[in-house]
Amino acid sequence: MSDHDHDHHHHDHDHSELSETELRVRALETILTEKGYVEPAALDALIDLYEKKIGPRNGVRVVAKAWSDPSYHARLMKDATAAIAELDYSGRQGEHMVVVENTPEQHNMVVCTLCSCYPHPVLGLPPVWYKSAPYRSRAVSDPRGVLNDFGVALPEATKIRVWDSTAEIRYLVLPMRPKGTEGWSAEQLAELVTRDSLIGTGLPKQPGETA
Amino acid sequence: MDGAHDMGGAKGFGPVVSEPNEPVFHGDWERRAFALTVAMSRPGGWNIDMSRFARENRPPADYLGKSYFQIWLAGLETLMVERGLVSPEEIEAGKVLSPPKPNVNTLSPQDVVPIIRRGASTEREPRTPAMFAVGETVRMKKIHPPTHTRLPQYVRGHLGTIELNHGAHVFADLNSLGVGENPQWLYTVRFDGPELWGADGDPTLSVSVDAWESYLERV
What is the DSSP string of B175-199? Predict the structure, then answer.
């Protein structure tokens, strides 16, 4: 079975159960609202916050600032929680932040093998692959194979450091600043930072790769 | 518990498949299931460790057969039924069959942004001096509690090095049982690939977990 077929199979599987699940959630919301436990407007506010306000663009700005401002970089590496709070990206699932910096010698990758721990204030909610069994099982034993799934090949000698988020500490990868970006502003640099490069399953774009 | 959720090092799950331009939620039911779970923690009064246990404590086939937000939905139903907020009959019937539990707090719309932006720190004043120093070699205990733990199976019994000390944090294993926060020192412990995966392990790999002090023993 090709990856493509596998993907399709998975979607079909989800689809066949969707109506039952959808009905169940709808009925549950009605029950909880009628019982006075939840206010639908509070649910709307939560969804709006996570769908529109909190997302990887926050983490992108942290990295672009660290690349372009040496004193911010120093503060970020010394106390990531405080440095990220300077940009107002604090809160639930980001109370205790650690930034791990890639170097030519070492590449960092973040996983939560037990569930789905992820730094929400800087990256938003995690993508499906981050919460999936393939990623959670292999990131800690075969990270080069996982990187290969993402089309990323690192030099054989590069050390790979995987951070399994088993408690309430949340990790953000600081990728290496691409070469050929001397003199670029934080706004220009931000164009090169991808979400996956902040998890460690990708690398930043190179100059010329952006539109 | 040694359940299907504890996946580190498991084989056979196939490649990681990412979705281009993935939306935050796939379908409206995921939005509502997510928001209901977050909002219900206030009237429900459970903590994050209780909710993690409610999600992971299910038969492996059930856990692996459900999508991520289907697991959230199942966990939410478990937590609510345990506390008498709804009955299993109400969930199955899809309508209210009994009066609400009295005197519960609700999450008001105007509280949402301040509460999410404030978060909930798990750091607490340490009660004892730290037993281990950065740089020290430790062994992870071989424990198999039937209840919630954040010590993954793949590191148990293995030798690692203390790399960071994060201060004292609410101890998830006990907090999940509702017997208090019992804060303990929390460390990042690093393991070499071959220590975890044997001679065939990637020699360029090292893996760390965040481990509370009672997970560790001196060597």
Answer: HTTTS----EEEEEEEEEHHHHH-T
Q: Which of B87, B118, B149 is the last residue of a domain?
A: B118
Show the tokens assigned to A28: 């549950």
The reply to whether ipTM tops 0.90 is: yes
A45–B contact, CB cutoff 8 A = yes
Q: Is A117 a catalytic residue?
A: yes
- Is there a domain that residue B154 lies in? yes
Any idea how long chain B is? Answer: 219
Check if CATH label 2.40.128.100 holds for domain A55-198. no
- Report chain A residues whose CB lies below 8 A from the CB of B120: 92, 95
Question: pTM to 2 decimals?
Answer: 0.95
In degrees and rounded to multiples of 5, residue A189 shows phi and psi of: -65, -35
Give the CATH number for residue B134: 2.30.30.50
Per-residue pLDDT tens digits for B27-75: 999 999 999 999 999 999 999 999 999 999 999 999 999 999 999 999 9
User: Is A141 a residue of the active site?
Assistant: no
